[in-house]
Amino acid sequence: xxxxxxxxxxxxxxxxxxxxxxxxxxxxxxxxxxxxxxxxxxxxxxxxxxxxxxxxxx
Amino acid sequence: xxxxxxxxxxxxxxxxxxxxxxxxxxxxxxxxxxxxxxxxxxxxxxxxxxxxxxxxxxxxxxxxxxxxxxxxxxxxxxxxxxxxxxxxxxxxxxxxxxxxxxxxxxxxxxxxxxxxxxxxxxxxxxxxxxxxxxxxxxxxxxxxxxxxxxxxxxxxxxxxxxxxxxxxxxxxxxxxxxxxxxxxxxxxxxxxxxxxxxxxxxxxxxxxxxxxxxxxxxxxxxxxxxxxxxxxxxxxxxxxxxxxxxxxxxxxxxxxxxxxxxxxxxxxxxxxxxxxxxxxxxxxxxxxxxxxxxxxxxxxxxxxxxxxxxxxxxxxxxxxxxxxxxxxxxx
Lengths: 58, 331
Fold this sequence. Notes:
- The complex is a heterodimer of chains A (58) and B (331).
- Chain A has 58 residues and is α+β, with helices and mostly antiparallel strands.
- Helices cover 10% and strands 26% of the residues of chain A.
- Chain A has one domain (16-57).
- Chain A has one helix at 16-21; strands at 38-42, 45-50, 54-57.
- The longest helix of chain A is centred in the N-terminal third of the chain and has 6 residues, at 16-21.
- Chain A starts with 15 loop residues before the first helix and ends with a strand.
- In chain B, strand 4 (140-144), helix 6 and strand 5 form a beta-alpha-beta unit.
- In chain B, strands 1, 2, 3, 4, 5, 6, 7, 8, 9 and 10 form a 10-stranded mixed sheet that branches.
- Chain B is globular, with a radius of gyration of 19 Å.
- Chain B has one domain (17-319): Alpha-Beta Barrel (TIM Barrel).
- By secondary structure, chain B is of the alpha/beta class.
- Chain B: One of its GO terms (molecular function) is biotin synthase activity.
- Chain B: Keywords: 2Fe-2S, 4Fe-4S, Biotin biosynthesis, Iron, Iron-sulfur, Metal-binding, S-adenosyl-L-methionine, Transferase.
- Chain B: It comes from Actinoplanes awajinensis subsp. mycoplanecinus.
């Protein structure tokens, strides 16, 4: 599993800063495979798509 | 009481004439103890010359990422190792976003593209998008598509785009430190064409790009010379992978001083809270800015980052007894 903000392994290093930043950012990396996702932000939400693992919404 | 505040009260508040560059610098150098009085004066100026209404706007990225320019603050430049990937928004999603924006009470919907300037494909997408929005939603459409040719300016007017955003980003003397792929003067040229076309001019920038206090005053004075209908005021939100990714965030009191200074430089403009206010000012600062010269907000999310929920800002406006500007109202 990977950090969806920085793309590094979630179990390695500290990701508290990433988690805090994610409150005002959509995810950029797929947490399953660390591919960069295609992210569309709209006024009321976002969608993030991984070519392998599908689309997430927030 | 500070002499500069006395002068501002006599001229800006009484006559609606903005401060000049040297005076703006004096404002930016005021000590923290003078901040409450400064914010109150900026608020009084805003109320007298703009009224209590607040213009609410939503923005949307029609084309994200992959930009050929090197604006050092921007995660959408294709020249940096930013995690932002290129993506286009389809027309049905664009219309849905306009509907969601209008549902908040917003009167403005700005369509933005990360480009140097629009190509034929983008202009065709704009034409289809603006038409579809106008058929489905009662909201004014603005655009921000980079540098334009005269032909493109004319096309946007014909489509019914009523306001065009093109930020100068920072003052002329600092611009080459922030962008090297085009010039401040090229941006000014587009703004001149937009003004002459009859479209409303929206032009602001970002504070915290490494500019000095003197350059911040220079920027406010240059914007005042342009005299835009609207000035969106952003605060740098340092983005990973960009050259300014490690730049410190503007300190809250400096941000509030800048808001008041920009209001005293441009007493009659629409001064809009834009990106970065959440990390620079937080909830309390957002309130103070609205009581210190701001009279417009972007609600909801930004282009690649997230904002406060629209309901939080709307509740704040209600609490401050500041009515949301309606479509029939004019500043």
